[in-house]
Amino acid sequence: YFALKHRYILIFIGIVSAVLYSVPNYLCRINSTYLNYAENIQIIYCFFAIPAIFVISAIIEKVFWRFIYGKFFSLLNDSTFYIYLIHCLFIGIIDRIMNPIKYMGILDQFVIKFLFVYTFSIGLSIIYTYAKRRLKKHEKG
Q1: Could you write out the DSSP letters of every residue in 16-58?
Q2: Which site from 20, 45, 128, 134 is most exposed, i.e. has the minimal number of CB atoms within 10 Å?
């Protein structure tokens, strides 16, 4: 209830932390420097992104509840823990790929990271959950 009661504050803090995370990364790439506190900002971003995504998901559920309880969203719901676990791996991968690219706009960088991380995290987690369901059905006979 706390999260839904303070949903706008949590979403705002999530957006602000995303900006605070993106700007130092951008400056590091442009200036070819290393900021000692960049990892701390990433931790703060991740800490506040989770409740922001939770609140956004709750709002989506409230608005689109008729569509959410179908087969796909049931599969997506069962995949959320795996998405949570694996998205950090893809953040690390995309950071390693993008670090040599120095001249990239903040928005470009954010969009590429967002698309890469969430496409692969959600996609692979759904595939894994679907395969796990199929194996359970197969074992039951």
Answers
A1: HHHHHHHHHHHHHHHHT---TTHHHHHHHHHHHHHHHHHHHHH
A2: 134
CA 31, CA 15: separation in Å to the nearest integer?
A: 24
pLDDT tops 70 at residue 10: yes
CB half-sphere exposure, 134, CA atoms < 13 A: 6
Residues in the chain: 141
pTM: 0.58
What band does 74 get if pLDDT is binned at 50, 70 and 90? confident
Residue 126 pLDDT greater than 90, yes or no: yes
Q: How far apart are CA 95 and CA 3, in angstroms?
A: 30
Give the separation between CA 83 and CA 86, rounded to whole angstroms.
Answer: 5
Instruction: Give CA–CA dist 107/85, Å, rounded.
Output: 25
92: burial class by Cβ within 10 Å (0-12, 13-18, 19+)? exposed
